[in-house]
Amino acid sequence: MISGTTSVAAVIGSPVRHSRSPRIHNAAFVAAGLDWVYVALEVERGRGFDAVRALPVLGIGGINVTMPHKADAARACDNLTETAAALGSVNTVVVNADGSTRGDSTDGEGFVRSVADAGLDVAGRSVLVLGAGGAARAVAAALVARRAQVRVAARRHRAAAELADRVPGVEVAPWPEKSSDAEVVVNATPIGMGTDTAMAVQPRSEQWIVDLVYHPVETALLAEARRVGAHPVGGLGMLVHQAALSFEQWTGVPAPLAAMFEAAG
Ligand code: NAP
Fold first, then answer.
1. What ligand 1 atom has the least distance to the C-alpha of 237?
2. Domain extent listing, the chain
3. Which of 19, 92, 141, 206 has its CB 3.0 to 4.6 Å from that of 104, i.e. a possible disulfide?
4. Alpha helices of the chain — where are they, by DSSP H?
């Protein structure tokens, strides 16, 4: 029951009404028995900084940040974790008891946890990341931190080069690579989203194919990976794990992962 003492969490973005985060977090609050509620707030481009600065004024417990506000949120927070500072990007804001704000980026750690769930330890692996946007950057940084050998390919070579400049240890690979000899390939582009049946790469048998796209849950790339005897890993696991990491920072309570997975699926 929502009352005057209910704590509020939210996601800010634009567009944001389609977000699965309210479903995942509200299920988590119920499962953990917490008097919290999570809503989606449509915040127009250019107002992300103001929105983050308003959190302590409104007494909001914490927020997630999605496109196009991740960089503005990083600028607006009083403190950043090392990861968020390195990426210049924030997807989680915690409002401390003294009203100060701390920004973090949980996508990279969420990625690592999701592939670990599937049985993949990324340490020492050769990984090709396709795409050079926000998700690719977070994933590449998390992989380098775990001593993977990371190459990035993007349709705009310059974007891949910028990512490599920003994340030391990453090398640039040519795009498109029909198939790759990397042990792990990560699709960090929207190719395969919704009704798109295109594939960012042709999977090889025994290769790990990680698709960050989670709508649909089974993309054409994952189906093909299964068909050729590769190891397919979908994007829902990363979505849930990055959410769980946010939840734990706001509430200080272990995330009820099973309930979150059920709500996400
Ligand atoms: P983003 O910042 O917009 O970056 C998208 C990247 O994909 C850019 O490098 C873009 O290239 C490239 N791209 C877009 N369309 C392409 C196409 N048709 N062919 C080749 N490259 C293309 O987006 P993002 O936030 O990184 O997200 C990327 C994907 O990851 C999305 O599908 C998103 O849903 C998914 N994601 C999943 C999770 C999760 O938890 N599972 C978390 C974050 C993101 P240009 O710069 O040239 O446009």
1. 41
2. 7-105+238-264, 108-234
3. 92
4. 21-32, 48-58, 70-76, 82-87, 107-117, 134-145, 157-166, 220-227, 236-251, 257-264
Distance CA 230, CA 245 (A): 29
Phi and psi of 82, rounded to 5°?
Answer: -60, -40
Domains 7-105+238-264 and 108-234 are alike in CATH topology: yes
Q: In CATH, what is the architecture of 7-105+238-264?
A: 3-Layer(aba) Sandwich (3.40)
- How many angstroms separate the alpha carbon of residue 123 from the centre of ligand 1? 24
Q: How far is the CA of 157 from the centre of ligand 1 (A)?
A: 15
| The overall pTM is greater than 0.85 | yes
108-234: what fold?
A: Rossmann fold (3.40.50)
The pairing of strands 101-104 and 92-95 is antiparallel
User: Which of 89, 155, 260 has the most ligand 1 atoms within 8 A of CB, as the residue to mutate?
Assistant: 155
